[in-house]
Here is the input.
Amino acid sequence: MAKKMILLVEDNPDDEALTLRAFAKNKITNDIVVVRDGVEALEWLFADGQYADRDVSQLPEVCLLDLKLPKVDGLEVLRRIRADERTKLMPVIILTTSEEESDRLAGYSLGANSYIRKPVDFSQFIEAVRQLGLYWLVLNESPPEPGHQE
Amino acid sequence: MVDANVGERSVSSPSGPDAALMARALSGLYIAGATMVVLTLVLPRDIDPNTAGSIFVLGTAYAVGVFLYVTAGRFPWQVPAVLLALGTLHITGVAYFANQEPSPLIFFYLWVLIYSAYFFPRNVAIAQIAFVAINFGVLLALHSPPNAIAWWVVGMGSMLVATVLTAAMRDRGEVLIASLMRTAAERERAQREVAMHRDHLEELVEERTTALKVANRELEAFSYSVSHDLRAPLRTLDGFSSALIEDYGDELGETGEDYLNRIRAASQRMARLIDDMLLLSRLTRSDMRRHEIDLSPLAEEVIDNLREAEPDREVEVQIEAGLMASADERLVRVLLQNLIGNAWKFTSKQERASIEVARANGDPGVFCVRDDGVGFDMSYADKLFGAFQRLHSSGEFEGTGVGLATVQRIVHRHGGRTWAESEPGAGATFYFTLPRTRTADGQEDDPAG
Here is the structure.
């Protein structure tokens, strides 16, 4: 069985570096795929465009989704993830700067599994990533693969 | 046989007007006109137009009676009826347009006035012309065309005489009929003006509402952008400073690490500032849901949280039970967090402290949060509730200067007021009022909708 994979949808290179650092600090060694906008995220997930060669059945264990993204925004990415049979059960964690009530409401309404606000204090962020990794990569049992349900 | 017929014809000939009859009729009408003029002079000027109309009609009827007496009843019944109609309609017409509502007398001739009012509702002059024309129609229905024309000329002539006479007297003062007519015209003009203002006002309100909506949308977009975009660089500052300390701490030395820690502290302070600002701006925009709430358990909760964060502090807390108010619970929680948080903060330099949350002087609508902390100089009291105003340096006490501005905004949104009393070193007391019941204070209207 392939090692559990994490999909990080993040357009800000600083945040990307810091998130990867936070994972490394917490000794989370899973493969982390980084896509930098909404379109790229969807292409990767559905093996389309530049990712046409990818094995579409390989789903990430968890998807960390930023909301403010170029081209297609995070909420729209989430909507399409939930609309597709292949990805509708995939755990999606919104990892964002916004604490707007409207974003939280929209995120959960569209079927986000969790909503985490990126703290400015990096020590807090490391702690958040630690708990997140522990919960979603170790504690949580992932949904059965599509087509394997009875 | 033939002779007898001649005598009858001379009394009421359907084929042509009788010269003697016309002369008598005219004299009668002049009596009617003169009566009206006399009444005009006798009646008080501030008389109610309806009463005036009735008096004029009675006067006209009296004149017609005199006229009938003079002609010794030898006239067909249509004559007094038409005269009465002309006089009454003239007066009631004026009264109607002065009043914009029918006088009781008008029901006699309602059908005539409905036409004139229906076709010419806004113009007295046109209505009068129509009235004249309709009267001609009435005469035509009662008489043969030549007689109708004759009676019409007589009727109009009497009106003309009355009008000319009253107009001639206009210069000598406010003549009632003239004043009634002027009142009608003035009223119409005023109504037109008011209507124009009203229509314009609606436009204006609509314009302002749209502008407000746009401004509100912009504000929302702005605060959304602030919460997203302004925080992201701060995360970068803090994150990479922390990475530098961790990865290159040895090379940096103590001073270098200290500098980086300052950068981190500043980033975090700015993040807090942004959060507080956003909270403040959201307080103005958010909807209010007022209920009967008890402030006491809310205050307990706030204290519990503070104790949890700093368990070592010795603070004696007194919270009066049953502090009831009609308010938005979420907003009041923020209010108490700020006021009690301040009391907690400004007593932190002393070993023992006491904080009290209570009614001020037992007044049910006035609450206060009292502490025995460092206090402040009352000469700065006017700066207290301004956003980003601080009376203590950040070195002394942490803070962004938004807390009391937030408190004030919450209290204002509830229609209350807030003030403070203090002395340096002798603690501070912050007062605020909240509505006691929902019915006593109406729900606030949000311009944001």
Q: What stands out?
A: The longest helix of chain A spans residues 122-139. Chain A has five helices and five strands.
